[in-house]
Design brief:
heterodimer; A: mainly beta; seven-stranded mixed beta sheet; four-stranded antiparallel beta sheet; globular; B: 117 residues; mainly beta; six-stranded mixed beta sheet; five-stranded antiparallel beta sheet; 1 helix; 11 strands
Chain lengths: 114, 117
């Protein structure tokens, strides 16, 4: 079983608040990812990282920002939460192996902005 | 633009049945394909990864096939059990991670499976 953790699991917060979603992995993977998933919809990549001090925006435009100061930690921040940010946020990590680049996912954070 | 479609969107079967989930993708230039399982309110669990050069992968009661030229993959579940109830997601990778160092996954919307006792 993959060792990737996300906190909080559920968060209900008011509009305008700053929030940080935490993601940590203990597998030493270089690559980490943030996906956004609305109910019944596909996962969309919003941020990824090749390694420490490397971050890139994904396919889906997002007002969130990320940082990668340590290999194991990849937090996502929303400076001013809005109801449109209500969604599930999934963190993943991977390491290239001979069989491909298998991604391991955390349990997700379900965010509700009121 | 790569698009991934999964059919059916939902499936309900009695325990013990063998079943097939379908995944199709529009661009056959993929590096690999992954099948995931997602339980309600949870993250994704990787089930099987098939490289583009492979035809199938097996793990226990699961067998995934890949026909890259026709843009199709199937996930076969043998002797289904109530514990198999979940949403099954198919995702294709667009780049070779050994060349670019990064793999972008494009996901389908999933098939919701319910196996009743």
């Amino acid at each position: 079983e993959a060792d990737i953790y996300q906190t909080p699991r559920y968060l209900v917060i008011g509009t305008g608040k700053k929030i940080t979603l935490e993601c940590s992995q203990t597998m030493g993977h270089d690559k980490m990812y943030w996906y956004q998933q609305d109910p019944g919809m596909e996962l969309h990549l919003i941020h990824y990282s090749y390694g420490v001090n490397s971050t890139e925006k994904g396919d889906l435009s997002s007002e969130s920002t990320v940082s990668r100061i340590r290999t194991e930690h990849f937090p996502l921040t929303l400076e001013s939460a809005r109801p449109s940010h209500t969604s599930q946020y999934l963190c993943a990590s991977s390491e290239v192996s001979g069989t491909g680049d298998e991604q391991y996912f955390g349990p997700g954070t379900r965010l509700t902005v009121t | 633009k790569q698009e991934v479609t999964q059919i059916p969107a939902a499936l309900s079967v009695p325990e013990g049945e063998n079943l097939v989930l379908n995944c199709s993708f529009t661009d056959s230039a993929i590096y690999n394909l992954q099948w995931f399982r997602q339980d309600p309110g949870k993250g994704l669990t990787s089930l099987l990864l098939i490289q583009s050069s492979q035809r199938e992968q097996t793990s226990g009661r699961l067998n995934a096939s890949l026909d890259k030229s026709s843009g199709r993959s199937t996930l076969y579940i043998a002797a289904s059990q109530p514990g198999d109830s979940a949403t099954y997601l198919c995702a294709v990778s667009r780049t070779n991670p050994m060349n670019t160092g990064f793999q972008k996954l494009v996901f389908g919307t999933g098939t919701r499976l319910l196996v009743s006792p």
